Amino acid sequence: MTSRTMWLPLSAALSLLACLTYESSAMAVRDHGPGLPGPPRPPPPPPRPKGPSRPVPWQAMVSLSEGGSPGGFGGGALLSDRWVLTAGRNLFVEADRKHTQGQKPQVPKVYLGVAKFQDAEPSKEVAVEEVFLHPGFQNTSDWENDIALIKLRDPVNFNNTLMPIPLPEGEDQEETPGEMAIFGAWDMGIAHQLPGAIKYLKLPVVSREECRAGFQSGRGPVIDSKMFCTGPSEFFINVCFSDAGSALVFQNPKTNRVYAAGIVSFETACAFRKHAVSTRISAHLPWIRDIMREDQEVSAQRESLVANLYSGKI
């Protein structure tokens, strides 16, 4: 694909900034010790931004069950007018990798332009032509190569609620501890309740060493260079059920370029685990570009639309 600089809509950036400004105010609350009153708790957070200026217009819903029943759907990221990137595990009903041995990936239903779970209706569904599972997915590990591509049958039209997210390029640095990622969460929650609107979270990157230490005492992935980890938001909202396949988006501090750096893989962090694990997209770029090599969606109309819609900073 031809590389190009893309930006978030300015209105979306402002909406997200207002929400995140409140989150940063929580840092002022500190533990003053037993019996000592601390500062008053901050007021309830403002409603999450909704409507056409939502800051995750690349978000897709990937479903393997009728009606999107609990446990039957996950996330995805629109890369172009015919391609969606998601987690490999989203193409199988079985959660454990060993149960996928010898099985072909299922063809899911894909919904685009959905800001609320209830909006996943036939008018938002896009037909799928083919799915591509990473060839290293069905191996002995339950965590490696958790990535897949979904090719849509027909090109989709972009607008202010539906836009692609760029892939990382050479000048986009590797994620560093403390760096913040934008994440669109379906927020099914620990109780597996059906979600409402997408929650917009900002999650901090944690070091590989810290992440590895957090999984040493329990069952979890072996963290390698093809993965990176994030912690919970300021209010301890974390990646949870149904979030696998959603993109973690960063902004290059030097170029202000916005791009997808990760795809959520280990999504059962919720309130029980401190860290969530994502597949690093840059580690799989050769495979992604090889699969998408026949993608010829570049057009004057698309170039003009993207140039107008991506502006400002996140």
From TrEMBL:
SMART domains on file: Tryp_SPc
Keyword field contains Membrane: no
Identify the residues that the record assigns to the Peptidase S1 domain, covering every copy: 57-293
- Please provide, in alphabetical order, the Gene Ontology terms of the cellular component aspect for this entry: extracellular region
| Residues making up the signal peptide according to the UniProt record | 1-28
Compartment(s): Secreted
> Which InterPro entries does the UniProt record give?
Peptidase_S1_PA, Peptidase_S1_PA_chymotrypsin, Peptidase_S1A, Ser/Thr_Proteases_Immune/Dev, Trypsin_dom
Q: Name one GO biological process term.
A: proteolysis
Alphabetical keyword list:
Disulfide bond, Glycoprotein, Secreted, Signal
Biased composition regions of type Pro residues, renumbered to the chain: 36-55
A GO term, aspect molecular function: serine-type endopeptidase activity
Main subcellular location: secreted
Q: Where is this region: Disordered?
A: 30-57
Q: Which Pfam families match?
A: Trypsin
Q: Which family does it belong to?
A: Belongs to the peptidase S1 family. CLIP subfamily.
Could you tell me what this protein is called?
Peptidase S1 domain-containing protein
